[in-house]
Amino acid sequence: MKWILLLGLVLLIPMVHAECSLTIESKFASGFFNEIEALNSQLQTCPVPLASYIAKLYKNGNFLVNVEMNDDTTKSFMITLKDGTIAGLSTNTNNPTYTVKIEEDDFNAILQSSNKMGTFAYLYKKGNIKIKANNIIQGIKFFFIKPFINAGLGKIQNPNIWTPPQQSLDVGEYPGYRVCEFYQTNKKLVTCAAYKAGDTFCVTTMGHPEAKAVKCEENGLVICTLPCSPKQYAAPLKTCPFDNGRPRGSQAPPLEFCEATAQPQQPEKKLPGALCQHGGECTTGNCVGEGMGPPWTYRCSCDPFKYVANC
Hints:
It is a single chain. The chain is α+β, with helices and mostly antiparallel strands. The protein has three domains: 2-161, Nonspecific Lipid-transfer Protein, Chain A (2-Layer Sandwich); 177-256, no CATH class; 267-311, no CATH class. Helices cover 28% and strands 20% of the residues. The chain has helices spanning 2-11, 13-16, 29-45, 52-55, 104-112, 116-126, 136-156, 197-206; strands spanning 48-49, 61-68, 74-82, 85-90, 98-103, 130-133, 177-182, 212-216, 222-227, 255-256, 287-290, 297-300. α1 packs across α6 (116-126) and α6 packs across α7 (136-156). The chain is flat. The two termini are 42 Å apart.
């Protein structure tokens, strides 16, 4: 079951091993691929253990995930297992043991779902996610245990909690922006022929001076964008202003094309004997003065009241 669940497991890392503080922020595939380097560097210092029943099947290996993008390109990343842990993510695609194929919209649905594992299982059972072994031996293993995999995923799938993201083909993607689209089917509030009418409409409806109209058509379609990090701060919109013709919903949340911000890595704790300035730097929590002093030399210590280097 290991390799079938790998993609779901990577997207569930925060739930699997919370103390690693490894969280995937992206809601779209494009942002996820920009996060891979930061996620991998965190895995290098804190590999995520796999569930024991999965680790028994596969402790080591490389698993290639191909995401078929909407622009007819393919983006790929590799999941590396080592000694029963998820030990790395990379864009290196050499020598995979298994290959997973998934379309961009389905990948986005997993990223955006509140029940990622249930969504993953549902998509796999529907045939939207394909898994292939890349050598004969692994293919034989896969053939014999596939019925058990299907049964297991069938129990955890939850189609009711997943709604495919509805996005009109007219909208497109706008990296770095939050986007609301308006169709004005009932009442036309803006005439695009007027000078900067679209921009004025977006500033008014989205309530921010940096909102812009990237598309304004006489058929009523207006696409408004707002920078993810505007110069003038404003609380992010929770819903787009009302538009009865919007396919995603009259008050759907904005489409977010914001890149994830990698969290800075915390410095490693120092071992007893290392120079320190305060106890927070030490694995023991103790930073005490050494020598007759003053001045003293402060080092990490096993004892909170005197310098002891050997615990």
